[in-house]
Amino acid sequence: MYNNLTRLDSDDDEGILGESTVNPVVVPALLTTFAILLAVVTVSWMGGLTGLYAPTVSVEAMNVTCALDDHGNWEVLVKLENCGDSKLTFSKVLLNGTEVSSYGAAAPASESDSTITGLSVDAASEIAPGECVDVAIWVGAKCTPFRRGSVVEVRIICAGGTEIVERVRLV
Fold first, then answer.
1. Residue 18's CB: how many other CB atoms inside 10 A?
2. What 8-state DSSP symbol labels residue 88?
3. Which of 7, 35, 39, 75 falls 20 to 30 Å from 19 in CA-CA distance?
4. β-bridge pairing 132-139 and 74-82
């Protein structure tokens, strides 16, 4: 009755019922490989989901120009394009690190001593995806420390924290 069974302490590679046994090192290696593959698949799947639901914010300054208006004030014109897939809302405009004096203003009617922009910093100034907009910033002829030939850093900050930084020389 016990003739067909092999002993457990025998030196051959056959198991109790005549099957070969698995080396004890192979099982943990297979489990580790399976866990790594499962982690890679999960991470790539979650990355794909994030890409579907997270909007991208991208804005480019297409062109920056400077010209003198009829009153001797500098008009800096920044052409922006929203290259992302979500709307952009502006929150600040800085010239050399100092915020402009007035938002939503018209061009100055005389020689000015302040910095103003026609850009509004509310929901009305949103740029839709794919849209281009011209941002006009006027630097008054009497406004210190600006003078002819100086380079001005224009920094436009969006509500989400995106910044557009361009430099222009005052003509």
1. 9
2. B
3. 35
4. antiparallel
Coil, strand, or helix at residue 41?
helix
- Domain regions of the chain by residue span: 1-54, 59-169
Fold for domain 59-169? Immunoglobulin-like (2.60.40)
**In the structure encoding, which two tokens stand for residue 94, read together?**
């800085």
Q: What is the pLDDT of residue 38?
A: 94
DSSP code string of 124-139:
GG-B-TT-EEEEEEEE
Q: What percent of the chain has pLDDT over 70?
A: 81
Q: What is the side-by-side strand order in the sheet with 90-95?
A: 98-99, 90-95, 151-158, 163-169
Nearest to 161 by CA among 78, 59, 49, 63: 59
Task: Determine phi and psi for 50, rounding to 5 degrees.
Answer: -60, -40
